[in-house]
């Protein structure tokens, strides 16, 4: 009898709670899927939003608006006045940030309402736009799905193939407030078409300092131990003689099938030391020089030399900018806590003075189906 009473009470409460919400028909809503934040030439804040149109009589499938506003929240009343239906931000998939915005240290406060609004999805993908946000948000590719879906699928695919990072609002919030890590965000550019160009690197205050190419982004993911599927690298074999001709190029492409990394952290002679040992199992997927010109063991050493050189260049860029997109501060805090706490407030500078060594060990698993 008691169980039956509890069941009736539960059904009653569910009925009451479900009736408390205000139900708005789908055709009366403007469901924003993309939110854009940018600055114009006079440093006025420009807010954009893009929404699908569900009205069968409409000639356009997407409505996009852009306007000046003092904040994201203040822009809503203007969007409500322009849009056909009531604007809701509950389904936003993509947040586009203009690079002009990131050139200012205090930009992150613009997103305050995004984090306070309980209906705003923290899984929204964050993307930096190299150029005006309007070039992207008003872009209508004829051979692609709606822009929001296209960007979401593109960033997930490129992250899955270890070409770029996948920053959501939740990840960005952590990176902005974590002292042992600095933010890194996927970067796109509109030329003839939209394309991912790499990763934007920010300092501890969130200010843009530099960018990484697609290839360097893959290296960053390996150092962060966040590579997922196979990573492809094309390597120029500089030590081989160029025999001329228009097709005989001394290049090699490899698929990195498996990566095992070990990081040792210590503090010695008044600075931190990070020692990476990275073992890669690779497959040769393209060889543009004669078979037999280089023995397999020699080839492994040549690949190791090239990748070691690339990691060295990446680390030099990181240290010169006094940033830590890898998250080495997390290792320092975990293994050298007392020393880390002394430099926590200026970790970027401490990392710039640190010794970071990377040693790559290559094991060629396969030379391909046919040699």
Shape: globular
By secondary-structure content and strand pairing, the structural class works out as alpha/beta
Q: Helix coverage percent of residues?
A: 25-40%
Biggest sheet features: 8 strands, mixed
How many distinct helices? 12
Domain Spore germination GerAC-like C-terminal: 198-368
Organism: Peribacillus asahii
Membrane topology: Lipid-anchor
Pfam family, one: Spore_GerAC_N
Q: What keywords describe this structure?
A:
371 residues; alpha/beta; GMP Synthetase, Chain A, domain 3; 2 domains; eight-stranded mixed beta sheet; four-stranded mixed beta sheet; 30% strand; globular; Spore_GerAC_C_sf
List the helices and strands and how they pair.
Blueprint lengths: L1 H19 L8 E3 L2 E6 L5 E8 L9 E7 L3 H11 L3 E3 L5 E5 H4 L9 H5 L8 E5 L3 H5 L9 H14 L8 H9 L6 E7 L3 E9 L5 E5 L1 H10 L7 E6 L14 E18 L2 E17 L8 H25 L7 H8 L1 H7 L3 H6 L2 E12 L5
Parallel strand pairs: 1-5, 2-6, 6-7, 7-8, 13-14
Antiparallel strand pairs: 2-3, 3-4, 8-9, 9-10, 11-12, 12-13
């Amino acid at each position: 009898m008691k169980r039956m009473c509890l069941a009736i009470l539960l059904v009653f409460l569910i009925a009451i709670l479900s009736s408390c919400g205000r139900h708005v028909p789908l055709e009366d809503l403007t469901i924003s899927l993309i939110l854009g934040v940018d600055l114009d030439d006079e440093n006025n804040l420009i807010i954009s939003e893009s929404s699908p149109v569900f009205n069968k009589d409409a000639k356009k499938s997407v409505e996009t608006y852009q306007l000046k506003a003092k904040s994201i929240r203040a822009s809503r009343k203007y969007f409500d006045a322009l849009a056909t239906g009531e604007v809701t931000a509950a389904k936003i998939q993509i947040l586009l940030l203009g690079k002009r915005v990131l050139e200012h240290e205090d930009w992150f406060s613009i997103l305050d309402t995004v984090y306070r609004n309980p209906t705003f999805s923290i899984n929204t993908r964050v993307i930096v736009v190299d150029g005006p946000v309007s070039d992207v948000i008003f872009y209508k590719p004829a051979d692609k799905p709606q822009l929001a879906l296209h960007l979401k699928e593109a960033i997930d695919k490129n992250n899955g193939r270890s070409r770029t990072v996948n920053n959501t609002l939740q990840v960005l919030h952590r990176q902005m407030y974590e002292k042992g890590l600095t933010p890194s965000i996927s970067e796109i550019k509109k030329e003839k078409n939209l394309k991912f160009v790499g990763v934007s690197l920010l300092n501890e205050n969130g200010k843009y300092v530099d960018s990484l190419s697609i290839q360097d982004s893959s290296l960053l993911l390996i150092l962060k131990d966040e590579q997922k599927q196979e990573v492809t690298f094309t390597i120029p074999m500089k030590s081989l003689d160029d025999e001329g001709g228009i097709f005989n190029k001394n290049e090699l492409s490899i698929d990195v099938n498996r990566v095992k990394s070990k990081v040792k952290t210590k503090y010695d002679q008044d600075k931190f030391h990070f020692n990476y040992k990275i073992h890669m199992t690779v497959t040769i997927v393209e060889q543009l020089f004669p078979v037999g010109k280089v023995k397999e063991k020699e080839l492994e050493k040549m690949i190791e030399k090239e990748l070691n050189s690339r990691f060295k260049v990446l680390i030099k860029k990181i240290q010169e900018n006094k940033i830590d997109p890898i998250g080495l501060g997390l290792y320092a805090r975990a293994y050298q806590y007392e020393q880390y706490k002394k430099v926590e407030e200026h970790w970027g500078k401490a990392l710039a003075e640190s010794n970071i060594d990377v040693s790559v060990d290559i094991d060629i698993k396969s030379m391909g189906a046919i040699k």
